[in-house]
Amino acid sequence: MTKASSSLQDLRRGLYVKAKAEPSWRFWGLYVHVCKMETLREAYALARKNNGAPGIDGVTFEVIDAQGVEAFLEQIQGELNERTYRPLRARRQEIPKDGGKVRILSIPAIRDRVVQGALKLILEPIFEADFQPGSYGYRPKRTAHEAVQRVATAIVQWKTRVIDLDLRAYFDTVRHHLLLEKVARRVNDGDVMHLLKLMLTASGKQGVPQGGVISPLLSNLYLTEVDRMLERAKEATRNGKYTYVEYARFADDLVVLIDAHPRHAWLLEAVSRRLREEFAKLQVEVNEEKSRNVDLSCGESFGFLGFDFRRIRSVKARVWRAQYTPKLKKRTALLRQLKEVFRRHRSQPIERVVDLINPVLRGWVNYFAVGHSDKCFSFVKDWVEKKIRRLMGRARNRGGFGWKRWSKCWLYEELKLFNSYRVHRAAAPKARPAG
Known about the structure:
Layout: H1 6-21, H2 31-35, H3 37-50, H4 61-67, H5 69-81, E1 91-96, E2 102-107, H6 110-128, H7 144-156, E3 161-165, H8 170-173, H9 176-184, H10 190-201, H11 215-222, H12 224-236, E4 245-250, E5 253-258, H13 265-281, E6 292-295, E7 302-304, E8 307-313, E9 320-326, H14 328-344, H15 350-368, H16 374-395, H17 408-414
Antiparallel strand pairs: 1-2, 3-5, 3-6, 4-5, 7-8, 8-9
Helix pairs in contact: 1-6, 3-5, 3-6, 9-10, 12-13, 14-15, 14-16
């Protein structure tokens, strides 16, 4: 979970243990912990670490630090204690997506990030105890790579029928009354519920704002019943150590994998129907145009968390294994971003350009440095080398790529161009015995 001071850690650990031991317990007296200066300080420290742009009020962390953090937090604490706190409207910012679309990011004011962070610090351990094993998005000590490995393991274990679901505008369609009902099953504190309602309604009549500190926790909570249904399906189809249904969910990205044996064919329709029933209860719309059923045994593929998944036969070992590579559109988006950097800074020293593209390459490669990304990495590396050489050649009114003038050794040792294109191989998952 989010790291905090020792006494706050003890409180959070106690809340988690209690919630885990008693799944029907409703917690009371939480609001006083939200208002404690210790909690507010920790929430501010986390917000400061994440940095980020100012909200609609234009107040930056530099301004707060200059005027005094303690005075800033004391004002927030006073408003919370006196029940006069009201969140400001979030500043909306458009973030480009693939295909020319945009994602609307809501940027709360720093004061509201602190309050949301304080509330999250208290509520997170309670709901974390209720979250299911197949949920990975925005959870403490869980990563997207673990979700990817879970899917790869399922493929190796002959779960090759895949339900690939796409949810239409999930974050924008979360119903506040249903979400508050789910929170109330665990929280018996009127002040906490009122504070949470203020946060939700500040962003509109429905939806959880992408960019809000507490939004990831709430979006996971909203879909927990879907996860529970899938866990029941796993247990109902269990055969000793192995199950014939597996799933992985990262926020609104969900994939379900079902055993390939003919006697389990009925599960594909049954699980698909139950999923749609659960989403209908939540008034979450399934995007049927993008959702599909995939059969990996027929050579088909599906996408999950930026990777393309296939099942291939190993040439040496003559066994089936999962292959996952970066999606083509993710590679295209990276090159487009790098092109924009080259275009905007073509008149600047090459060292400045390298300083700008290195962090982009490092972040992208670190994410995709699992699975079978070697060929994609080689393509990107070669593309960047050529782009750098062409940029330097044009600056000197020379044609070509300057293979002799600027060797690979010079690019990586003298210019310090990013060069860590290594793929980290995960341990091979064990296959399920036939039968």
